[in-house]
Amino acid sequence: MKLIDLSLDLAKTTPPILSSLDPMYHFFTLSSEENTEEVRQKLYHLVREGVLDDPGHKSGDFETYEDFIKNIYLHHYWKHRETTFLASHNGKWIGLTTLSIHGHKGHNGLTVVTKEYRGTGIATVLKQKMILICLEKGIQSITTHVASTNNPMLAINCKLGFTEPS
User: Fewer CB in 10 Å around end: N or C, the chain?
Assistant: First the structure.
């Protein structure tokens, strides 16, 4: 599986106009939630489904809940809770995109949407919200990487202006 590196030059980007979706979808950041067992479980199940179903995922393996909490949750999600963007529908968490900021650069890590909500525009809106936050914070560029076999995510990134570095 080959990863494709993509970048978005925010100096050359027009702020995105958020896609219009069903008002039953709720978008928020992890920072709006308490660090509770329920929140950790919701995040684990969302991330697990998304990673295991990613066309670029190498195996059917995923961390146990305990390993996820011990090795990933605090360092990657809770630490970046202000820039971990989530979507829910009727209380169920259905999508996520993550952003880590390093100086004037951002890195978009994982983006996932549960199977039953794919193709509805959730991933696009999550990434648009991430781009808007980057513009507000003066971030100059965003990088990401996508499995070469993940055509839907490649299309979303290209639609939003991400390109392969020259």
Answer: C
